Amino acid sequence: MRIGQHILTSGATTAAEFGANAAEAKARGYDSGWTNQQPGSWDPLAVLAAMPDSPPELGTAVVPTYPRHPVVMATEALTAQALTGGKLTLGIGPSHEWVVTEQLGLPYESPARHTREYLEVLRPLLRGEHVKYAGRFFTVDTQLTISAPEPPVLISALGPRMLDVARELADGTIALWVQPALVADYLVPRLGEDARVVVGVTVSITTDADGVRENSARELAIINELPAYRAILDRGGLSGPADTVIAGTEEEVAAELRRFADAGATDLIVNAVGNPRERARALDFVPRVFAG
């Protein structure tokens, strides 16, 4: 089981903050550090270059596909791969209609088909191949000459069709709002034994687990309105994203994290919640659960 730390980009005011957060993750013993694309915030691939003292792996979880042509994504990814010394794992996904159409004014059509075509263009470009492609969404005739090793590619696959795409064209999935049972009974069988199953987890070490979940339910209310997330919550029999929050004593948190490992998750991305002292305590604790 590999353990990653979510390195927040929203709210940051300088690139130095990213570097400091990555250095802290490395010092804590995390295997990886992850960023994502927040509306109005920093570019998730560009900030990786501001993390010279970082864990062995740096990933994006995730970069939306619709706003970036796959040639642009490949160019940015290989640039980040070169600048980070080969640490990149590229996580991408179609995002949500609320973001793509309502915020950006772009059509959000056939996300599984769009993602399939995207990968059919992206992956050979990352390998340095000349791509000549004509599909519904993309027509490409080009090659990149950036000298960098091909990064692993993960996609935010939750539904059956997206998981098929992940199994056939990606190295695995990045999943949110799931519990261990869904990993074992749904994600792992759909993806196969060799796939990476990266699960984002919200963690709090607290004596008020109910209070943490109630606060999370308020802050994450929008998740219930996003169809892909609502579908995975329903598939897991959950009322909302707060049901996936791991909160309690150190012993309770450790037991729940180990359940993910037993279920077949290969990686966890930890997002600690609470005040700064509580967040630091949780971030310090989680790597020790799997140490040795």
From TrEMBL:
This is F420-dependent oxidoreductase-like protein. It comes from Amycolatopsis magusensis. Residues 11-266 form the Luciferase-like domain. Pfam families: Bac_luciferase (PF00296). Keywords: Oxidoreductase. SUPFAM superfamilies: Bacterial luciferase-like (SSF51679). Gene3D superfamilies: Luciferase-like domain. InterPro entries: F420-G6PD/mer, Lucif-like_OxRdtase_MSMEG_4879, Luciferase-like_dom, Luciferase-like_sf.
